[in-house]
Design goal:
The chain is mostly helical. The protein has 32 helices and no strands. It has two domains: 344 residues, no CATH class; 88 residues, Tetratricopeptide repeat domain (Serine Threonine Protein Phosphatase 5, Tetratricopeptide repeat).
């Protein structure tokens, strides 16, 4: 027990050394606002309405994802820690650490190799390519999904070794939880078959090998038919959740029409090789890697490398079965995110390696140990190299994690290590605006528009910032350009509406807010602003309907409650007015307009209708 306790403690300490700094971090400007900060279902904590929303298909319409357990975990964080950011990062780190411990336990269970299992788990815990998954609050979906995934592998290993059905059922249940957190682990049935081959040695090929001692002590292997039959419940879940993932990402997959299949194949081959390269030399890491022109020669070299690696793994499948399992673990678990089915604008992403890299770690650790077996290097040099490698990885990861504490530093670094990265210019521009450095942001909007001339979102953001800077005429030009590129982009209509409202053209503003809601009926601010326009035009009934719509989306919108109370007050409906004015003050005790409304009612009605 002592070695396991020692190794577990080392894993926890290494994880904290790298990631404890995130406890003081806030949120990043990518996805965190829509998923957490501005999401009223998340930031209001746990209640029946929010739980129903998490499991409803509304999340697909709003966020192009269905990950109920991830959203529930966010709600729990908001309930316990509030919305400061540190609590969300704390949970990510705890889950990541627990995932490393589960990986260690599963590997020890399957291989019996305590030290090598600990090294693999340590590399998982601190590798720089995993920083993005842990230090980015929204990527809770990665750490939560793999926490359940590693638990499912551990339970399956217990079943395979002891033939106890309860562990088999537990593995299926944990796999379901993993898929309910994120659909990345759909490759688990394939991975379990690899683990059946090695290290579980359940197949007749290895179980009967004269030089292969089976972990479970069996001399006869399990027939392939039975091994495949065992995976049928896992495969059913895989098929169901693959369909769900494709359905939820349908909008994001529209980008794939702009990328030809030959380009996607070349990109997949070169991305595989880049992931391997960054595993051993983790530099030049970026939160976004743009697509680029890929030369056929680069594609050929990458393809030859992959083919040779596959052939070598196959030829060594009996002599060095860990090479077979490790390589195809890496190769197979990357397939859903390698870009053959293009989702989003990224060429590759560090977070995609969160599960696959363990295959490379497994291969390297077992291969190195095998190569130096019987040599003095194994006792003298190898431990020193291992410790130095882990410390170097930890230092590199610590520096990479530090970037996530500052949006501007994070995106500026991304620009420095990539070329022609329009998306990174866009992110940096938005981050600078959040720091009220709007003038500094303008060149990055211009550069993004040059590199991505059909990016309607950047024109809408650019127009919004110009409006805030008081450059309304220039803002209108950018917003109209955004609508020309994508006539369905609701935020552009909304910002145009705000410009016309500020100019006193309420009729024009009303038309634009209504157009916003045609393209996005859940646009809370458009409902609210439309209510304000109706109220200013003397349309109390229409204003009430708009404010009620805003509150149905965000029940904690204090100003919507206040203005709804005003609208009811104008209609002499004092009980309804009092309820909403009091609700506005309950949410925001400093809201002076609500106080004034209640005082006015008291003077008129003496506290009664």
């Amino acid at each position: 027990m002592r070695p396991h306790l020692r190794n577990s403690l080392i894993l926890c300490v290494l994880t904290l050394i790298v990631y404890a700094q995130t406890f003081s971090f806030g949120f990043v400007t990518i996805d965190d606002p829509s998923w957490i900060v501005s999401n009223s279902f998340v930031n209001s904590g746990v209640n029946s309405t929010n739980v129903r929303w998490a499991f409803s298909l509304n999340t697909i319409d709003e966020l192009a994802n269905w990950m109920p357990l991830t959203f529930l975990s966010f709600m729990i964080d908001a309930q316990i820690f509030g919305m400061g950011g540190g609590g969300f990062h704390l949970t990510n780190v705890i889950l990541h650490c627990a995932s490393a411990l589960l990986l260690y336990a599963a590997l020890v269970q399957m291989t019996g190799a305590t030290t090598k299992s600990a090294i693999v788990a340590a590399m998982f815990a601190i590798h720089p390519l995993h920083v993005e998954s842990v230090a980015w609050a929204t990527e809770r979906k990665d750490v939560l999904s793999l926490f359940f995934g590693h638990a499912a592998i551990w339970a399956y290993a217990r079943y395979a070794i002891g033939s106890r059905k309860k562990y088999y059922l537990a593995s299926i249940a944990l796999f379901l939880c993993s898929l309910l957190s994120k659909q990345t682990l759909v490759t688990l049935p394939f991975l379990l078959l690899l683990l059946d081959y090695w290290p579980l040695r359940r197949t007749s090929v290895l179980a009967n090998s004269h030089n292969a001692a089976s972990v479970n002590g069996q001399s006869d292997g399990v027939p392939w038919r039975r091994l495949i039959m065992e995976k049928i419940p896992f495969l059913i879940l895989t098929v169901l959740f693959c369909g769900l993932a494709l359905f939820s990402q349908e909008r994001a997959m529209e980008l794939s029409g702009q990328l030809s299949m030959p380009h996607r194949v070349l990109n997949a081959a070169t991305s595989y090789t880049e992931y391997v390269g960054k595993t051993f030399w983790p530099t030049g890491l970026s939160v976004f890697y743009p697509h680029r022109t890929i030369s056929p020669i680069a594609g050929i070299f990458a393809s030859v490398f992959l083919l040779l690696a596959c052939v070598l793994a196959f030829l060594w499948r009996r002599r060095k079965p860990y090479v077979f399992t490790g390589w195809f673990w890496f190769l197979g678990t990357l397939i859903p995110v390698i870009g053959l089915v293009q989702i989003g604008m990224q060429r590759m992403a560090d977070r995609y390696t969160y599960l696959p890299l363990t295959g490379i770690f497994l291969l390297v650790v077992w291969l190195v140990d095998d190569l130096v077996r019987g040599s003095t290097l194994r006792k003298l040099v190898l431990p020193l190299i291992t410790v130095l490698s882990i410390l170097l990885l930890a230092f590199t990861s610590f520096r990479q994690t530090t970037l996530w504490g500052d949006n501007v530093a994070l995106f500026a670094h991304g620009l420095a290590v990539t070329e022609e990265n329009g998306r990174m210019h866009q992110m940096l521009a938005v981050a600078l605006c959040d720091r009220d450095e709007m003038q500094e942001a303008l060149p990055h909007f211009e550069e993004c528009a040059r590199l991505m001339p059909h990016n309607h979102i950047v024109y809408a953001q650019w127009g919004r910032i110009l409006r805030e800077m008081g450059q309304a005429d220039e803002a209108v030009q950018k917003l109209i350009r955004s609508i020309e590129i994508n006539p369905q982009h609701a935020p552009a209509y909304f910002t145009l509406g705000r410009i016309w409202e500020s100019r006193g053209r309420l009729d024009k503003a009303r038309e634009l807010y209504e157009a916003t809601l045609v393209h996005d009926p859940s646009f809370e601010s458009a409902h609210y602003n439309l209510g304000i326009v109706h109220l200013n035009e003397g349309r109390q009934t229409e204003a009430i309907a708009s404010f009620q719509q805003a509150l149905s989306i965000n029940p904690r919108h204090a100003s919507a409650h206040n203005n709804l109370g005003v609208a009811y007050l104008l209609q002499q409906k004092f009980s309804q007015a009092r309820f909403h004015l009091e609700e506005a003050l309950r949410i925001d005790p400093k809201l002076e307009k609500a106080k004034q409304g209640l005082e006015y009612m008291k003077s008129r009605t003496n506290g009664s209708e």
